[in-house]
Design goal:
single chain, alpha/beta, Rossmann fold, seven-stranded mixed beta sheet, two-stranded antiparallel ribbon
Length: 253
């Protein structure tokens, strides 16, 4: 167990890194980012939560690049105006149409488990408000994201364009079937719970690729599952921590 001194040093080192990171980037939308300190505090909380769940995740810390991406993305822009005062709380928030923006801890963990690389092409199933896509866009070459609820998908497309994410392509459709025209993908992230792992998504995953997906019933236990496709096409599946996500919707069985 880490000592209080170690925790203090961790916080001090993180604060210095985040201060340097935010000082070196241009002010968001040519204005002073009043939310930067809130994001810094949120990332400290995520860091502590990762340590607390290390036995599930198999790691005690996330890739610093992932934490830096969360530090760049203004979560308050991805929630309804009435929820902005809660934007940097480490919790899911409603975004309308019975959907939520995921808990920042969960976004950080799912992103980290994909091991995103700068040349990667990533598929996201469940655009929602666009927050997860924006985090991925900070880390990879191309993001393709699918949303089945048209008003959410259209709003997310406009939001991502307005915020300058030129490497994100959106689509309205049933994400269960993926987006084969743009594949195969280095990694796939599913942000809604499925009763099983969709075969079309496995087919569109590159050999050597990773997929992260919550699996389980909306009314029973769900688990975050990491699937790795080996170079020979075989699959390795690892069940991680228990989670709670809205269900994956569509006309599939």
């Amino acid at each position: 167990m880490a000592t209080l001194l170690e925790h203090a040093l961790d916080r001090r080192n993180f604060a210095f890194i985040f201060m340097m990171m935010t000082a070196c980037r241009p002010a968001f939308a040519s204005e002073i980012d009043d939310y930067a300190q809130h994001r810094a505090a949120l990332i400290e909380e995520i860091t502590a939560d990762v340590r607390a769940t290390a036995s599930y995740l198999g790691r005690r810390a996330l890739d610093p690049r992932v934490l830096a991406a969360l530090g760049e993305v203004p979560r308050h822009e991805y929630v309804p105006p009435r929820e902005r005062f809660r934007a940097y709380r480490n919790q899911p928030l409603p975004i309308g149409h019975g959907q939520t923006i995921s808990q920042p801890y969960m976004v950080a963990v799912m992103t980290d488990l994909l091991d995103p690389q700068s040349d990667d092409r990533v598929l996201e199933v469940g655009t929602g408000s666009g927050y997860q896509a924006a985090v991925l866009a900070e880390l990879v070459k191309e993001v393709y994201t699918i949303e089945i609820i048209e008003p959410l998908g259209r709003a997310a497309e406009q939001r991502l364009q307005a915020l300058g994410y030129t490497n994100v392509t959106t689509r309205i459709g049933d994400g269960y079937y993926g987006w084969s025209d743009k594949g195969p993908y280095d990694s796939i992230v599913v942000t809604a719970a499925a009763s099983h792992i969709p075969p079309p998504l496995l087919e569109q995953l590159k050999p050597g690729g990773r997929m992260i997906i919550p699996v389980g019933s909306h009314f029973l236990t769900q688990h975050l599952v990491l699937i790795t496709k080996n170079r020979d096409g075989t699959l390795q599946t690892r069940q991680l921590l228990p989670v709670r996500f809205v269900p994956l919707t569509g006309k599939h069985d």
